[in-house]
Amino acid sequence: xxxxxxxxxxxxxxxxxxxxxxxxxxxxxxxxxxxxxxxxxxxxxxxxxxxxxxxxxxxxxxxxxxxxxxxxxxxxxxxxxxxxxxxxxxxxxxxxxxxxxxxxxxxxxxxxxxxxxxxxxxxxxxxxxxxxxxxxxxxxxxxxxxxxxxxxxxxxxxxxxxxxxxxxx
Amino acid sequence: xxxxxxxxxxxxxxxxxxxxxxxxxxxxxxxxxxxxxxxxxxxxxxxxxxxxxxxxxxxxxxxxxxxxxxxxxxxxxxxxxxxxxxxxxxxxxxxxxxxxxxxxxxxxxxxxxxxxxxxxxxxxxxxxxxxxxxxxxxxxxxxxxxxxxxxxxxxxxxxxxxxxxxxxxxxxxxxxxxxxxxxxxxxxxxxxxxxxxxxxxxxxxxxxxxxxxxxxxxxxxxxxxxxxxxxxxxxxxxxxxxxxxxxxxxxxxxxxxxxxxxxxxxxxxxxxxxxxxxxxxxxxxxxxxxxxxxxxxxxxxxxxxxxxxxxxxxxxxxxxxxxxxxxxxxxxxxxxxxxxxxxxxxxxxxxxxxxxxxxxxxxxxxxxxxxxxxxxxxxxxxxxxxxxxxxxxxxxxxxxxxxxxxxxxxxxxxxxxxxxxxxxxxxxxxxxxxxxxxxxxxxxxxxxxxxxxxxxxxxxxxxxxxxxxxxxxxxxxxxxxxxxxxxxxxxxxxxxxxxxxxxxxxxxxxxxxxxxxxxxxxxxxxxxxxxxxxxxxxxxxxxxxxxxxxxxxxxxxxxxxxxxxxxxxxxxxxxxx
Amino acid sequence: xxxxxxxxxxxxxxxxxxxxxxxxxxxxxxxxxxxxxxxxxxxxxxxxxxxxxxxxxxxxxxxxxxxxxxxxxxxxxxxxxxxxxxxxxxxxxxxxxx
Lengths: 169, 577, 98
Fold this sequence. Notes:
- Chain B: It holds the Pfam family Proton_antipo_M.
- Chain B: One of its GO terms (biological process) is electron transport coupled proton transport.
- The complex is a heterotrimer of chains A (about 170), B (about 575) and C (about 100).
- Among the domains of chain A are: about 80 residues, Four Helix Bundle (Hemerythrin (Met), subunit A), CATH 1.20.120; about 40 residues.
- Chain A contains 7 helices and no strands.
- Chain B is built from 23 helices and 2 strands.
- The longest helix of chain B has about 30 residues.
- Chain C is mainly alpha-helical and about 100 residues long.
- In chain C, about 85% of the residues lie in helices and about 0% in strands.
- In chain C, helix 1 packs antiparallel against helix 2.
């Protein structure tokens, strides 16, 4: 086990632990902040797997945009009775089924990957720099990229329509 | 008032049309077809058809004139009798409908048209008996009349089908032509026709509906339940006589029915304490006399008596209506001493009672004499009926003549003579007891004149005529003597007063049978048939409750189910592969 | 570096995200669970790209696409949640169903 692997395991534990906290925290804003930790740790994992550009995008988009959006949404939808105590049951009645399903999914996926890729190793032969990713994106993947811009536009319009339609009334 | 006369006008137009049609046929002996449309008596359209053709021969013309004449008089009478009734309009229009149906029954050559008219008459009878439907008695009487005559209608339908299947035509003339070539199924047809006649003409054992129909308005009783509809049964028997004339069984059955009914009706009429009900039983008895004429093979005599009876019985009922209007009741106990107060009613009803009793100058005497003569001729035994049966029938008819004269005299005496014993609600005749208005008295006079006028040109049979006159005079005299001696003429043995309990099968047994059967059907329906819908219902409820669990309206439950499904699919995939 | 580490982390994140989606009552946090699951997928893609090392950088490019789609998804999802909140004054999925 070399140094890279040690760092990766540490980041992995950080990511998994903070994700668990994010999904079980009773304080909604705390949950969002724990998610920031998870996403940051995953971004570190990306760096360790030689995908530095993806790591930056992860930080920019997820940590910078998505989590901020989520925190805004949490604040906008804050309900009166949750403001004071913050200790109302934040999970539903079927949490035990959900927990079992989560464990089953994790164990199942883990077992599958162990069985399938037990001895494989990452060599780091092709570094995912901005240059190489950009090169691939604008040569081989240019058509899906353009289509994606259309999807984003549609999502933008849809979000505006959805949030405006209520306020008109 | 003007609006009321409008309905009289409609009836009058109908009467004039029929008169234009029928009067020229009165003197003729030949049969005339009035062909409407392209069909004729032979070469008609394929079976079954509803041809509107009318067949008019002398007997038909007389009956048509009787129907529309009495109908017109009844309409005039009703303007005064019932003019202020809130449902006068429907009443008057149903009378017109009834007359049209009667014309169809009497005039048609097509058996199905006859059936339609027959049914419409039954419907009109039901509606008019139940005209005062606020009274439970009227409702019950109407329902009873309708249900009992339904049995008769069933007989008629069966008879029509049998005739059609036997002779290949539903045309009366066509069937008669085919019958004259090769008679078939005479007994069956005859018995079915007899069922129809027994129900419609209120003969034994289906006679009980007619007295119970008396809660209907009195003019209606005069028109439908004395002059026309009940007589239509006898008319049918006479009309189809040729088809079953060869069957001794049918003629014997008819004679037996007629004999029983005639004597029974006369005796019941004697014991009644209600003028209108007594006249109803009298009608039953007289219809039996007509049927007897058909049974002995002389339907002409039967229809002649039908005509005379229609006139004088309508007269009696209309007079009864005048009396009822004056004293406010139809009970004999509230009448008496009306002779001076109501002279027109008295004299006209006297003529009517004389005709009923069969006294000489009236039409009733001559036609009854014809019937008796026909029965007397049948006693030689070569007219289809056995001689013994005919003798019995003759004796019964003569006894009936005596009883008829006696009850006619009794009713006459109790209504118009005496000092008004126990009369009226206040014990004496009130000041308001006076002669009926012109619209009611006028028809009485017309009918009284007709009672005498119809006897012109009637044949006279000396032997039976003398015999019946002697018997009738004896009956009248006996009652008059008894009345002179102070008798209250209330001799009524209990079985007769209870009308021999003949109504019991209808009022109790059939009712109990029907109730029991209905209860069984209801139980069957509830316990057996309903199991399927109820089972289906509970099955559907269980299934939907199960499905409703899935429809929790909770997104996370749906997602959970989805996830479970995915996991299970993966597990199954791994295990199988 | 062993390929198993990122794959196992991805499995763990996916299970945790699934639990979050199925168990949280708050609709916004349900969406966060979805984001977690998407991140697990991203991790998988990047790991396999590094292991496979093809010329087109398929895994990493697809990760970019996924991130973009996830951003679009969270935008729409939050718009829906806000509309829901305006309609029924709650984002509690249990109470919304009633």
